[in-house]
Amino acid sequence: MKAARWYGAKDIRVEDLDEPEPGKGEVKVKVAWAGICGSDLHEYLAGPIFVPVDAEHPLSHDKAPVVMGHEYCGEVVSLGEGVDSISIGDRVAIEPIYACGKCAACLDGKYNLCEKLGFMGLSGGIAGFSSFSIVPERMAHKMPDSLSVEQGALVEPAAVALHAVRQSSIQAGDKAAVFGTGPIGLLVVEALRIAGASEIYVVEPSEARRQKALDLGAKEGFDPGSVDPAAEIIARTGGGVDVAFEVTGVPAVLPQAIDSTKYAGQTLVVSIWETEASFHPNTVVIRERDIKGTIAYRNVYPAVMALMEQGHFAADRLVTKRIALKDIVSEGFETLVSDKSQIKILVESP
To answer: Is the pTM of this model over 0.85?
Structure first.
């Protein structure tokens, strides 16, 4: 079978691998579509970040080169011993979290905070940028018949956004700002609308992405290269938003997000970072602001798919390009680097 494997920064190779078979408690999935994530792009440009290189990941027991792709769905074609919640022919969206199930966070039900946290397609495993994938039974969520397989590939990033909004202090009627309107930022805009935010402001250098945010329900968008976004947001809202979402991973943006919030406001950091970021602590202390981080998701896939059945997080509003696996570097990663009008690129499995 074909699979795209990460060897190092700027070194992803589409190779021939032996077709895998499921072991005990595992399912084999014929991959349909897989999305290229911002985390994948970070690994391509500046990795390793999550990819284990010098030692095996403690849960996947893999190290580079690893098969990439963690936003994906497909059809179950084979079952390992003991699998009883999934059937051959089921269409499934994959929740690609490795968690130990034994640490304090896992025992508290917060498995996305596992001390050994990993992600299928980043930390190892036979993941989504391949013809077939092998996953533990618990990672495979049956999709409603009404959802397309393209929608299935968006469940994972939509779960990131919905979890972020759930973890924030946003309440119906509150005002919010989203810094960065790539795929996750745009999905956060949608999740904020679902949560009842009364006004949503976005900060994004790409005109095409700003317009997409407006199409999805944002009230106004600002180009940070032309204006001071925090000052503009404060002026529009009469003092700042209740919650700002940082979804860029760009160091200069974090203090802008903090400055855009009102007294006792919150900044939720959603990004994965390549480098450190700094801000003056007094901007938090004197205004009694709150800064919180969020990672991935937990126990949210069923809610995401239920919202998709109602028309939210629609693929036709977010997918801007569809490519073949063989072209994943030139038409996928390199396109995302050079063309900031792109939002979500889906990769079709061979």
So the answer is: yes
Q: Are 146 and 192 contained in the same domain?
A: no
Q: Tell me which residue range forms the domain holding 203.
A: 169-293
Domain final residue pick, 293, 308, 324: 293
Q: Are strands 140-142 and 91-94 parallel, antiparallel or unpaired?
A: antiparallel
The dihedral formed by the CA atoms of 253, 258, 261 and 265, expressed in degrees to the nearest 10:
140
303: part of which helix (H) or strand (E)?
helix 301-309
- pLDDT tens, residue order, the chain (350 aa): 999 999 999 999 999 999 999 999 999 999 999 999 999 999 999 999 999 999 999 999 999 999 999 999 999 999 999 999 999 999 999 999 999 999 999 999 999 999 999 999 999 999 999 999 999 999 999 999 999 999 999 999 999 999 999 999 999 999 999 999 999 999 999 999 999 999 999 999 999 999 999 999 999 999 999 999 999 999 999 999 999 999 999 999 999 999 999 999 999 999 988 899 999 999 999 999 999 999 999 999 999 999 999 999 999 999 999 999 999 999 999 999 999 889 999 999 99
Task: Choose among 130, 120, 122, 121: nearest CA to 3.
Answer: 130
Q: What is the CATH number of the domain that holds 235?
A: 3.40.50.720
